[in-house]
Amino acid sequence: MDLSTHQAWLVAFYHRRHWDQYSPLIRLNFLTEEVGELSRAIRALELGRDHPGEQVPAKRALTANLEEELADVLDQVLILSGQFEINPEQLLQTSETKLKQRFSFEKD
Q1: 3-state secondary structure string, 9-58?
Q2: What is the count of structural domains for the chain?
Q3: 4-43: per-residue pLDDT in tens?
Q4: What is Dmax (Cα atoms) for the chain?
Q5: Is residue 103 part of a domain?
Q6: Which among 22, 58, 72, 75 is least surrounded, fewest beta carbons within 10 Å?
Q7: DSSP state of 106
Q8: CA distance 16 to 64
Q9: Is residue 52, in this structure, part of any structural domain at all?
Q10: Which residues contact 97 (CB under 8 A, 6 or more apart)?
Q11: NTP pyrophosphohydrolase MazG-like domain: which residues (predicted)?
Q12: Hey, is 84 helix, strand or coil?
């Protein structure tokens, strides 16, 4: 699956549930929430939680949670880019071009 195909599916999924009614500014809050959950997932993997009464999950479960949270962040970025009619494949190209220009003195 490529990013554009997933974005199209995701936009349709959100539309069916009327989740597309939220403005980009509100959607940014959802992205921020997902980044917080991603932060917690990384902390659990890297440092542990050391929370009284909480069992320590197996590394496999922690990694699965990290994958889920990364996907949630990606989905919010794809929804935002869709709201601004930006092709997600172009985001990849924009990132690569910017970094190559910024660090043009370095060899690949």
Answers
A1: HHHHHHHHCCHHHCCHHHHHHHHHHHHHHHHHHHHHHHCCCCCCCCCCCC
A2: 1
A3: 999 999 999 999 999 999 999 999 999 999 999 999 999 9
A4: 53
A5: no
A6: 58
A7: S
A8: 27
A9: yes
A10: none
A11: 28-102
A12: coil
